[in-house]
Amino acid sequence: MDALHFDLQFFAEEKTEKATPRKRQEVREKGQVAKSADLNTAIVLLLVFIVLLFSGRLYKEAFSRLLRKSFEQYMLTDVTINSVHTLFVTILEELAWVVAPIFIAGLAGAFLANFLQVGFLFTTEPLQMKLSKLDPIQGFKRIVSLRSIVELLKSILKIAIVGFVTFLVLWTKLDDILSLTTKSIGTTLSSLSSLAVQMGLYASAALLFLAFLDYLYQRFDFEKNIRMSKQEIKEEFKKTEGDPLIKSKIKQKQREMAMKRMMQEVPKADVVITNPTHYAIALKYDDQEMEAPIVVAKGVDYIALKIKQLAKEHNVVTVENRPLARALYSQAEIGDAIPEQFFKAVAEILAYVYRLKRKI
Q1: pLDDT: is 129 or 178 the higher one?
Q2: What's the mean per-residue pLDDT of the chain?
Q3: CA 47 → CA 111, 113, 201, 282, distances in Å?
Q4: 8 A C-beta contact, residue 285 and residue 313
């Protein structure tokens, strides 16, 4: 029996079920999402090299202008505290204008990569200080874990593929590189810049392909980590929908309260129409306040018996009319006026009741 109990407990706690929407929302609020850092790097690098590809001539002119000013103007300036400060600010502003497009492309790439992976998400949960992160035992477990080994293999694979791609670019341009020794400095710099941009584009494309595969792996690993056991799903259902036992008790209490209120209205009724044994419908009519008689209580079997007993105790007239009792029970609700098709039959019964009361 103990072994069977252990097996049942093991299967109940085994995380085999997909995470519920509530669990996904909770882990998302904590900053736990499926995201590949390699995809961020690849998109940022790709956008930066695209900017360099289309604005290389502008950068060449900007750096040439900066070097020309440095040798023709800045180096001939007297060295004083004010002049050094002025030169530093001037050169910094010119460099800022040169670097600004690359910086903006990098920011746009980082935002785009994160938005494509996780959408809009703002949370400070990952930034909170947790003492558990300082635990050396847990840190050692993370270092020697399967995830760290996978990350190491991924890094080796990235270095190998990116290195191979850049080597192919250099190999295909080997003749052009060797011929640079016979060309001018300007042509050599332009050729090397173009070659560097080409290497960056090819390497970024290769890294983007690897990053996409890594993103698929991260999604698989994320889905695996947030799986839930059957017991966890049951507990979550209890929290969101309520314990079924408690809900049934609440409904039972509500029924008891409704029954008590209904029975309190029976002594105020004018007549109780019966089946005579299975159905009982209590009606009340006040021509000053009501347009038609209303049903103040109804029931079958045991409840019908209680209605008839209360009616007898409080001298409420009971009239037997089997078809009318059945029809009113099925077509009229408590607190509602009786349907129009029963007006005549009920009016005759009420007239009989009023005549009976006058005789009494």
Answers
A1: 178
A2: 78
A3: 12, 11, 9, 81
A4: no
